[in-house]
Design a protein that fits this description.
With about 110 residues, this protein is α+β, with helices and mostly antiparallel strands. It contains five helices and five strands; from the N terminus they run H-H-E-E-H-H-E-H-E-E. The longest helix is centred in the N-terminal third of the chain and has 12 residues.
């Protein structure tokens, strides 16, 4: 009887490639906090990652952003774009539902 090893041995989240890449990115921008991440997938299948960093750490990382992007790309072959913002992207998005027309409108504040 052959057992399906894929179902028996689930890989923990900390061992996945995405988790490893996220931890590498956290280590590279260590004095700052990552506020948000966006992935833009183009029609040819290439991905561009937009990383939003804390505005308070602009003085520390503004001149290092290109070097961090180059090091991160050499480690895992992903393009990154860094920007600074003072708001958390997850908390600034509010949802407004118009129940008469069944339209959901997202408002950035």
């Amino acid at each position: 009887m052959v057992k399906n090893s894929q179902n028996l041995n689930k890989r923990p989240r900390s061992r996945t490639l995405t988790a490893v890449y996220d931890n590498i990115l956290d280590d590279l921008v260590l004095p700052s906090n990552i506020i948000g991440k966006r992935i833009r997938v183009k029609l040819d299948g290439s991905k561009n990652y937009k990383i939003t960093l804390d505005e308070n750490d602009r003085a520390l990382l503004a001149d290092k952003a290109d070097a961090i992007a180059h090091v991160y790309k050499s480690l895992n072959y992903q393009k990154n774009c860094y920007r600074f913002s003072n708001k958390t992207l997850l908390t600034t998005l509010s949802k407004k539902i118009d129940r008469d027309n069944l339209v959901i409108v997202y408002i950035l504040e």
